[in-house]
Amino acid sequence: MTHITTKDGARIFYKDWGPKSAQPIVFHHGWPLSSDDWDNQMMFFLNEGYRVIAHDRRGHGRSSQTDGGNDMDTYASDVDSLVTELGLTNAIHIGHSTGGGEVTRYVAQYGKGRVAKAVLVDAVPPVMVKKESNPGGTPIEVFDGYRAALAANRAQLYLDVPTGPFYGFNRPGAKVSEGIIRNWWRQGMMGSVKAGYECIKAFSETDFTEDLKAIDVPVLVIHSEDDQIVPYADAGPLTAKLLKNGRLITYKDLPHGCLTTHPEIVNPDILAFLRGEEARKSDQQAAAAPPVMA
């Protein structure tokens, strides 16, 4: 079986590889992608002895293109349906970008007794949009621009984003991968234009402050100072401070999509955290911040 059915009848596609007796890792993808964005990590952690699971969020990839439910509460409920169907316990949840928001809401609302650890990579919490309580956020006009571009010609938008800021291919001296760009476009175009449009509100305007405060399990927060999609100063450090048991690792100049461009750096850091080891040091990584305890 490669799909589960949610409470409202949506069919959620998932992959489930490895021994069912192994500790499960559940991967949560970013906007507007699919579980395929985790190909590298699925193979890496499978080879490290974990059971690896990834799903396509509703409206994305091979899951149902539903009319509604493109909001964080429903996304988290869908994850709970998947976790319940698969009977997962002692699970690790890893989320990138929008998927990091999904992880945060799921762990806070449904994860009690089922989640061992979580990892947020260049993720959207605490909240992205600029407002009175979040003066350092991104102006709403930026997200309005994404919505307008998506509604007008999402095929072009889905080329512009990976060609430019998502992978840092617009930086001087960047090693551009046409394959990575095309794969981003392929994943985005598989999904629903309506879900892609509505998910922009979900990832930009949802406030995860209280969710972060409610999480008790250890959480690794990874964020790059050169993230052009989710600005570092208003995300990673603030998230780590709100967590009861959070650790922040900062990269100096990796892109938002660092899981794809630099897995040789990010994967070992995540693995070390899962094993309870110290994060490694490298010339490409800024010194890891000390554990931040809220």
Uncertain runs are: 281-294
Helical fraction: 25-40%
Helix and strand element order: EEEHEHEHEHHHHEHEHH
Q: How large is the radius of gyration?
A: 17 Å
Shape: globular
User: Which structural class best describes the helix and strand composition?
Assistant: alpha/beta
| Number of helices in the DSSP assignment | 10
| Total E-strand runs | 8
* Cα end-to-end separation: 41 Å
**Biggest sheet details:** 8 strands, mixed
Largest sheet: spatial strand order: 1-2-4-3-5-6-7-8
- If you average the pLDDT, what whole number results? 94
Task: Tell me the strand percentage band.
Answer: 15-25%
Characterization of the model:
- This protein is of the alpha/beta class and 294 residues long.
- 39% of the residues lie in helices and 15% in strands.
- It is built from ten helices and eight strands.
- It has helices at residues 39-47, 72-86, 98-110, 140-163, 178-190, 193-205, 209-214, 236-242, 258-261, 263-274, and strands at 3-5, 11-17, 24-28, 51-55, 91-96, 115-121, 219-224, 246-251.
- It has an eight-stranded mixed β-sheet, sandwiched between helices.
- Helix 2 crosses helix 3 (98-110), helix 4 packs across helix 5 and helix 4 packs across helix 6.
- The longest helix is centred in the middle third of the chain and has 24 residues, at 140-163.
